[in-house]
Design a protein that fits this description.
The protein is an alpha+beta fold and 134 residues long. The chain contains eight helices and four strands; from the N terminus they run βαβααααααββα. It has helices spanning 7-15, 25-33, 42-58, 65-73, 77-81, 83-91, 95-104, 127-133, and strands at residues 2-4, 20-24, 105-110, 117-122. Helix 2 (25-33) packs antiparallel against helix 6 (83-91) and helix 3 runs antiparallel to helix 4 (65-73).
């Protein structure tokens, strides 16, 4: 089974449509905090990602003050999930990555911090079909 420890590995697992993988360590903790992102609609998640991105682009010109302002002023989705969830989603690789992971995979939390692991299984994979082909 694939073990994921970095946001780059997480993005690659999602992009490659890996059927099952485990996320460990600090990334697992951040990902679990970002789980509320999945409660948004796809449209709201895209709007939130755009707002966070706009704040990041403007940050160098506004000494960073635009980061929080853009995220909250531009979308009502931010009030739905909260600041901590948005920060966690950005930390694991972005709002849309976190949204997609929780929409496309079911998950099981194993253990607790700091030794927590999250097992993800694709919701779109037919396990009975692959088992009969083996």
């Amino acid at each position: 089974m694939l073990i994921v420890n970095t946001k780059e590995q997480l993005k690659k697992a999602k992009d490659n449509k890996v059927k099952e993988f485990m996320v460990t360590g600090e990334l697992a903790e951040k990902l679990l905090k970002a789980q509320k992102i999945s409660k948004l609609s796809k449209t709201a998640a895209i709007a939130l990602a755009g707002a966070v991105g706009a704040g990041a682009v403007a940050a160098p010109f506004t000494a960073g003050t635009s980061l929080g302002v853009a995220a909250f002023a531009s979308t009502a989705a931010a009030s739905t999930v909260g600041t901590g969830t948005i920060i966690a989603a950005v930390a694991v690789g972005g709002v849309l990555l976190a949204f997609t992971i929780f929409k496309d995979y079911s998950f099981e939390v194993i253990g607790s911090p700091p030794d927590m692991t999250i097992r993800f299984i694709s919701k779109h994979h037919d396990f009975t079909k692959s088992e009969s082909n083996s």
